[in-house]
Q: What sequence folds into this?
């Protein structure tokens, strides 16, 4: 009885928290449902449907690339659980500063459920680093194909700096020589930065002498980053999915441009939207309000687009982000353990089905196997060879 009451109370608290966060989404963004309907009504039809499709492709790409990185850390979860965490991250992107802050929420949730927080955080960090590399590559290609842009040398130089910086971060944990050199300096720092409430805990008696002490987080996180040194093929797939993710987001903006009558090519949007994504990822605004508007007005203004049309594009992107993120408030009410049980039941059913597959051996001639002979006192069976029949003289 008490357990049932506790579950009901926790569910009510979750519903209340979700309702409060939904209120914050509209309060911090200074808009309502009528604004969303009127904004998306301007691009209703095929552009809106195509933009929603591109957004869903981006969600799938984000889910699968994170699932690939989690698999390297030994964390095996199903697609439904990854999608659940991705939608929760989209929702918290609306109420937390910065458009990538929801990744911290999904890392906390999965780290608590899997009891492998450092490995989860390592996968999230690598995911963001690879995404930054993909964003820099798309920006570079877009700028190369638009050499007539005002201030082109400045933007090209900044893009090259970002590209070299992202590659440098990859080298820090992917290079065995450099990571081994850094490991000697990070270990004593990790001892100093132990969590205060775990300093008094004694290490496990079965732990190795060089194992992390209770409360250490830097060294386990660093070890999780270094674990990707031998998985270049997996990192390549994650980079490809990151490119698909970023190109899908550009496709969302391009479809809205078609619906609003904004004449801009996809190549121009390729570098504009990547720079806009970098700007709205800064933790200085909620749901990208302000940073996205200013960035779109400035960069599209370089292409001769009026500021009014740029603001309409920004509002359309905000409206779609809200519609795609609000389901996360409801999805987070689904307990993670329920999906875990569903995955376990599905895996058990597949195992039983595979184990019941009949195996038939087809031979052209009957098998002439030797007769088993069990000598007394022997623990293992032995096979006596059959006597060879010789023709009688």
A:
């Amino acid at each position: 009885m008490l357990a049932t009451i506790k579950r009901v109370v926790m569910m009510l608290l979750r519903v209340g928290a979700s309702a409060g966060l939904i209120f914050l989404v509209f309060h911090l963004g200074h808009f309502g449902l009528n604004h969303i309907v009127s904004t998306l009504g301007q691009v209703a039809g095929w552009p809106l449907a195509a933009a929603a499709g591109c957004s869903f492709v981006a969600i799938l790409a984000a889910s699968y690339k994170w699932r690939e990185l989690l698999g390297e850390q030994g964390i095996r979860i199903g697609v439904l659980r990854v999608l659940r965490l991705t939608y929760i991250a989209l929702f918290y992107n609306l109420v937390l500063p910065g458009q990538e802050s929801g990744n911290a929420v999904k890392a906390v949730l999965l780290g608590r459920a899997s009891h492998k927080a450092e490995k989860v955080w390592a996968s999230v960090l690598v995911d963001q680093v690879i995404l930054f590399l993909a964003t820099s590559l798309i920006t570079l290609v877009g700028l190369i194909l638009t050499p007539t842009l005002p201030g082109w040398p400045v933007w090209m130089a900044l893009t090259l700096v970002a590209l070299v910086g992202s590659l440098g971060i990859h080298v820090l944990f992917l290079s065995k020589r450099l990571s081994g050199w850094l490991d000697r300096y990070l270990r004593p720092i990790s001892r100093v930065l132990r969590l205060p409430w775990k300093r008094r805990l004694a290490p496990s008696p079965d732990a190795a002498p060089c194992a992390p002490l209770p409360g250490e987080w830097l060294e386990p996180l660093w070890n999780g980053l270094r674990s990707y040194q031998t998985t270049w093929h997996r990192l390549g797939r994650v980079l490809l999915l990151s490119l698909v993710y970023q190109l899908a987001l550009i496709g969302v903006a391009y479809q809205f441009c078609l619906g609003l009558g904004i004449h801009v090519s996809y190549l121009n949007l390729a570098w504009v939207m990547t720079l806009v994504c970098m700007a709205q990822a800064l933790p200085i605004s909620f749901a990208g309000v302000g940073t996205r508007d200013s960035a779109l007005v400035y960069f599209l203004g370089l292409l001769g687009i009026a500021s009014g049309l740029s603001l309409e594009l920004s509002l359309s992107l905000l409206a779609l982000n809200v519609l795609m993120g609000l389901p996360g408030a409801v999805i987070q009410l689904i307990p993670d353990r329920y999906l875990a049980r569903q995955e376990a039941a599905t895996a058990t059913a597949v195992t039983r089905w595979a184990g019941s597959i009949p195996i038939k051996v087809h031979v052209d001639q009957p098998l002439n196997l030797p007769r088993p002979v069990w000598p007394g006192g022997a623990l293992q069976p032995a096979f006596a060879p059959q006597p060879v029949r010789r023709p009688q003289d």
Remarks:
- The first strand starts at residue 372 and ends at 373.
